[in-house]
Design brief:
The complex is a heterodimer of chains A (331) and B (197). By secondary structure, chain A is mainly α. Chain A has 10 helices and no strands. Classes of the chains: A mainly alpha (331), B alpha+beta (197). Chains A and B meet through helix 8 and helix 9 of A and helix 1, strand 3, helix 2 and helix 5 of B.
């Protein structure tokens, strides 16, 4: 597509809009913006440039974070077994996380700034407010897309790590696989003492229940007397089970929270999209109001002309009747 | 999902001494309560004696499950006897909390005389943890999050409908704007051509 230079058209549009607008306050505000030498405009001019400064710094941070993210994505994509650089990757991940948090804070500060500005002003500079709000939305959406990419990269990395672990396990016969064997044999040995004669006597009152607790006590006794070493392994498994179940529960909470965050961001996106539609509706309704008022004006003029121009019509009618009479007389 | 008994024992050299316990035997008939209570005490003692230091165990017997945690601290062990449905993880976190509470609130000097120990928190914990979904932090957070997710789904549906409404509004306002423009033009044209007839 050839590059066209439409600066002149743009300038013409700006001029026409400026001439068409009946907004004396807006023009005054614009002048104030353009000439910060005014004492009253000093804070406003300063606040505007402050806003643009903050927005610029945020945009720069976002672009640098995107660059780092790309580097991280490249690093995470590598699938070599031995040359994996976990230290670098984790460092980079940490840095990127910090950057994103930082940008988030800055953006929140910027939004608060914009809100304070909006609350302070009384009416002038509506376009500036809109522009600020648009810039904030743009930066927010950029940050959102960056964090989404970050999340994707982290997922890819976890997948790759799992794959490499599987592959290393294939090549290296680890002791963990050997340790898995004993517990099944443990259960077999458990079953045996269960059927043995209950030689454990307990003095207790509830007779029916005692039988079961009998066998129960026997289980523990036999197990203890039997395999001490393997038993320790099972102890550790119990510990591990508890800790693991806790960690899985917390992980599920974490994933739910992440999902929620995702949903929230989608929601914000949709509302932002709809805002444009609302603006169109607004513009349309103002047009309608203008058209109707103009039409009413015209009708009023017409009515006025009709009521005062009867004189003209009488003359026209008189001329027609005269012609008519002439025709009749001629015939 | 019910908790039947909660007890704290002091385990020294393979023998356990019951320090404090709280029980909720309301689900048993009146005549069975005595024997059931004693059975549970005995079960708690046995299981605590056979649990090594720093180890957690769950032992199932008929329809009861005993979760035992030997804390190792001050030779204390805590046992909770529940039915089969009770989730395991909150049971252990309950035991942990119970032991911590016991250590801080009951002075060590009274431990040699179990009948003098007054630990009302045990009963409170028993009552509170009857519904683990509410009492356990993690489960509560998870439940709230699920609720929030449902609400958010509904919100998104609402937003979608709003989008549709806005679209129809846009179309209608567009049409109305065109019509009013035609109206204006017609009115204007009526004014311009002076010779009406």
């Amino acid at each position: 597509m050839p590059v066209q230079d439409r600066t002149n058209e743009f300038k013409a549009c700006v001029e026409s809009i400026r001439n068409r607008s009946s907004y004396p306050a807006r023009g005054g505000a614009k002048d104030r913006l353009l000439q910060p030498s005014n004492g009253h405009a000093k804070p406003k001019g300063g606040s505007k440039s402050e806003f643009s400064r903050m927005a610029m710094s945020i945009g720069k941070d976002i672009s640098s974070t995107t660059l780092k993210l790309q580097k991280l994505a490249q690093l995470a994509k590598r699938k070599t077994l031995f040359d994996d650089r976990p230290v670098e990757i984790s460092e980079l991940t940490f840095i990127i996380k910090q950057d994103i948090a930082n940008i988030n804070k800055q953006l929140a500060g910027l939004q608060a700034h914009v809100k304070a500005q909006q609350a302070g002003k009384t009416g002038g500079g509506k376009q500036v407010e809109e522009h600020n709000a648009n810039v904030v939305t743009l930066l927010q959406s950029k940050l959102m897309s960056t964090s989404m990419t970050f999340k994707d990269v982290l997922e890819i990395r976890t997948q790759n790590m799992k794959e490499t672990k599987d592959r290393t396990e294939q090549f290296v016969h680890s002791t963990s696989s050997a340790a898995i064997q004993p517990p099944p044999s443990n259960s077999l040995l458990f079953n045996k003492p269960r059927n043995d004669d209950p030689r454990y006597n307990i003095q207790n009152k509830g007779k029916a229940r005692v039988q079961d607790s009998d066998l129960l006590a026997l289980d523990m006794v036999a197990a203890e007397e039997g395999q001490g070493g393997l038993q320790e392994l099972q102890y550790m498994d119990n510990q591990q089970d508890y800790i693991q179940s806790r960690s899985t529960a917390i992980e599920s909470i974490e994933s739910t929270i992440a999902e929620l965050g995702n949903i929230f961001s989608q929601l914000a996106h949709m509302v932002a999209e709809q805002r444009e539609t609302v603006q169109r509706i607004d513009a349309d309704t103002t047009d309608i109001a203008d058209n109707i008022s103009g039409a009413q004006r015209e009708l009023l003029k017409y009515y006025a002309s009709i009521s005062s121009n009867r004189w003209l019509m009488i003359k026209v009618f008189g001329a027609i009747i005269v012609m008519f009479l002439i025709f009749v007389l001629v015939n | 999902m019910k908790l039947y008994q909660l007890s704290i024992l002091e385990v020294t050299d393979g023998s356990a001494k019951l320090l404090s316990s709280a029980a909720d035997l309301s689900s048993f008939s009146f005549y069975q309560r005595g024997s059931v209570g004693e059975f549970m005490t005995f079960m708690a003692k046995t299981v605590a004696e056979r649990t090594a230091v720093g180890q957690r165990q769950s032992v199932q017997e008929n329809s009861y499950t005993a979760h035992v945690y030997n804390a190792g601290r001050e030779n204390l062990a805590a046992v909770v006897i529940t039915d089969e449905e009770y989730p395991v993880r909150p049971a252990f976190s309950l035991l942990q909390k119970l032991i911590d509470d016991f250590v801080t609130s009951v002075p060590k000097t009274t431990w040699s005389n179990p009948s003098s120990i007054d630990f009302p928190a045990a009963k409170a914990y028993l009552a509170k943890y009857q519904d683990p979904k509410q009492a356990d932090q993690i489960m509560r957070v998870q439940a709230e999050l699920d609720e929030t997710k449902i609400i958010l789904h509904k919100t998104i549906e609402g937003v979608l409908q709003r989008g549709e409404h806005l679209d129809s509004l846009v179309e209608r306002s567009n049409a109305l704007s065109a019509q009013s423009k035609m109206f204006y033009k017609t009115a204007k044209s009526q004014n311009s051509c002076c010779v009406v007839m």
